[in-house]
């Protein structure tokens, strides 16, 4: 009998709680839990998916056109109307690209330049981001705002002063001219600062109590926790260096053997015209490393966007 009485009291309590929850949900100014829009509005969900599919096809079509053009003959690339699929797959275009110019050397040059730039950006971004996030010094906020303000300066405005500096250092036609000026990134510093601000202050306080300095805290605690942020900085820096064209075109004039791969694409543009099938084949080879890098690091890229805070 005692067990039955306790079961009745428990059931009555649960029923009362349920009624109270319904009453509060129906009260004015109370927000009910949102229901799944996919179940409530199936028509809207279908429309959204249709728009996303169309947008995805619009984004993917230039890549498709690049690949199929690289497999066409020279005559078919200029045919009117254009063909959406090659009449005959011409894989020999890729072999001709490697014979027309030393693309192996250009490829290695670009890998080395982009790799050095990426490592430099990661190093400077981590140090400067930690300084702005954890160190207290006069004028810190003003300096950070001025640093962000440099993002609004167009690269073309800095082109001539940077080139004059390079010539005074006698770095023209060298790898240093294509690496050193880009080993710091304002975007990378900003992103790493935001990541470091998102790390709980208790970790910094505990590290200081254990006798850790800024260097130890940064290398053993902050950097491992900001791995996704570092991945984004690495992707952006590598992509920017890999696609660089204007600056290498200015600083590399007399030694073609140190050209990056983007300058190598100019080989197929002559006074007689543009060899579109070879340009597209070279462009396809050029974009593969960047595409592979993004596919490998896309999880870190998405996590960084989700976790980047705006604290401070």
Structure in words:
The structure is a single chain. The chain has 312 residues and is an all-alpha fold. The protein has a domain at 100-307: MetI-like (MetI-like fold). Helices cover 71% and strands 1% of the residues. It has a two-stranded antiparallel ribbon with strand order 1-2. A hairpin with a 2-residue loop joins strand 1 (269-270) and strand 2 (273-274). The longest helix is centred in the middle third of the chain and has 32 residues, at 103-134. The protein starts with a helix and ends in a 5-residue tail after the last helix.
Write the layout of secondary structure elements.
Layout: H1 2-26, H2 37-40, H3 42-70, H4 74-77, H5 92-100, H6 103-134, H7 140-149, H8 155-168, H9 175-179, H10 186-197, H11 201-209, H12 214-225, H13 227-242, H14 246-251, H15 261-264, E1 269-270, E2 273-274, H16 276-307
Antiparallel strand pairs: 1-2
Helix pairs in contact: 3-16, 5-16, 6-10, 6-13, 10-13, 13-16
């Amino acid at each position: 009998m005692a067990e039955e009485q306790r079961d009745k009291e428990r059931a009555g309590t649960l029923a009362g709680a349920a009624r109270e929850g319904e009453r509060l949900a129906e009260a004015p100014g109370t927000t009910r839990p949102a229901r799944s829009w996919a179940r409530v509005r199936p028509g809207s969900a279908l429309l959204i998916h249709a728009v996303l599919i169309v947008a995805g096809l619009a984004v993917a079509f230039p890549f498709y056109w690049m690949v199929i053009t690289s497999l066409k003959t020279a005559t078919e690339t200029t045919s009117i109307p254009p063909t959406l699929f090659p009449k005959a797959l011409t894989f020999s275009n890729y072999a001709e690209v490697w014979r027309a110019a030393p693309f192996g050397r250009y490829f290695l040059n670009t890998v080395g330049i982009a790799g050095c730039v990426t490592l430099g950006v990661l190093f400077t971004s981590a140090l400067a981001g930690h300084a702005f996030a954890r160190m207290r010094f006069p004028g810190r906020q003003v300096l950070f705002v001025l640093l962000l303000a440099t993002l609004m300066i167009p690269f073309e405005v800095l082109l001539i002063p940077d080139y004059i500096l390079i010539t005074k250092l006698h770095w023209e036609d060298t790898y240093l001219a294509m690496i050193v000026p880009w080993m710091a990134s304002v975007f990378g510093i900003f992103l790493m600062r935001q990541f470091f601000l998102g790390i709980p202050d208790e970790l910094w306080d505990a590290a200081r109590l254990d006798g850790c300095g800024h260097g130890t805290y940064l290398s053993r605690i902050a950097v491992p926790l900001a791995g996704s942020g570092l991945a984004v900085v690495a992707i952006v820096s590598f992509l920017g260096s890999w696609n660089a064209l204007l600056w290498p075109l200015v600083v590399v004039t007399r030694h073609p053997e140190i050209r990056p791969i983007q300058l190598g694409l100019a080989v197929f543009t002559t006074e007689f015209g543009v060899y579109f099938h070879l340009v597209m084949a070279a462009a396809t080879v050029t974009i593969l490393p960047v595409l592979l890098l993004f596919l490998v690091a896309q999880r870190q890229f998405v996590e960084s966007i989700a976790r980047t805070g705006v604290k401070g």
